[in-house]
Amino acid sequence: MDKLLFKEDELRAFITQVQIKLNLNTNQLAELVGISGRTLRDWKREKFNPQKEVLVKCSKLSQIPLPAYKTLPQFWHNKIAAKLGGKRTYELYGLLGNRKSRSKGGKISWLKRRENPELWKKYVKIFKIPEESEDLAELFGIILGDGGLTRYQCVIYLNSDTDQEFAMYVQNLIEKLFDSRPSIYKSRKDHVWQVSIGGINLVEYLNSKGLSLGNKILSQVEVPKWIWAKEGYIRACIRGLVDTDGCFTIHKYRVNNKVYAYPKLAFSNRSEPILQFMYQGLRQVGFNPKRTFKYGVWLHNQQEVRRYLQEIGTRNYKPSVKKILGGVA
């Protein structure tokens, strides 16, 4: 893994600019790029030489170019000296913290910040708090489909090969609701658009409205109760879920050498409560869904599929949707 060498103060200035542009503190930025906060602080103090791939990721996320640098040779450090230094450190201080102890220390640190209002202000960002609406219900459907919450941010993952326009739509929807523009990053390696917005108080707001942190499948998340209050909210949430975890297909078959084709809507999810919402929600707004597979909800009737696109609609206009709307199927 390549290490980089910068002129004095340039690495510190670059990391600071990235934090300002993304509006993230050191721990939040470190989590976003997959390193520890301690490592990023050491880089910022120019105590150690940083990893190239991490700084490239910072540059892509913030659109701030890297300053001029030199790439250090792969084995630029002296392994023997490092080994002796580690041995001496162990002799002086014993076994240092492991992952578990550092995690415990981080949690204690955050609790101390939470108990100090003045200190806590440094770690929060002021957002517009949206009221319950169809836009918010749609965003909740999108998050429940292809998104998730950590302690510091909300992240939505979309297919970079097919969902470019939809990723821009999601970015604009979040900005409309919270008056803050999320970052958007394309990973060529994973074929993913990552739309993310950071802010502890934003995560707390989403959590208070019914979204949970962590693995959605393990926790078997449910659609929040407030979405059931209005038919418009149900439709909007269904649209967000289908636009992320659903698809429109063209089913073709041959009878007596004649080819027939008709559209279907398929929704798939591993959370049983979400599948139940999709099934009951579609029925409540006048459709006749089927649960023909364990993890799926379907609309098989082609007239209902076209009516779905007319009445509920989609923001994710993939090729199959365009064909259906164009009357090809």
Task: Describe the protein's architecture and organization.
The protein is an alpha+beta fold. The protein has 4 domains: 68 residues, 434 Repressor (Amino-terminal Domain) (Orthogonal Bundle), CATH 1.10.260; 40 residues, no CATH class; 88 residues, Homing endonucleases (Endonuclease I-creI, Roll); 86 residues, Endonuclease I-creI. The chain is built from 15 helices and 10 strands. A 4-stranded antiparallel sheet has the order 3-4-6-5, sandwiched between helices. Helix 8 runs parallel beside helix 12. The relative contact order is 0.09. The model has no long low-confidence stretch (mean pLDDT 84).
Mean pLDDT: 84
Over all CA atoms, what is the radius of gyration? 24 Å
The CATH architecture category of the largest domain equals Roll
Q: Tally the beta strands.
A: 10
Q: Given the structure, what is the number of helices?
A: 15
CATH class of the largest domain: Alpha Beta
What's the CATH topology name of the largest domain?
Endonuclease I-creI
- Proportion of residues in helical segments: 40-55%
Low-confidence runs: none
Number of domains: 4
* Secondary-structure-derived class: alpha+beta
- The CATH homologous superfamily of the largest domain is called Homing endonucleases
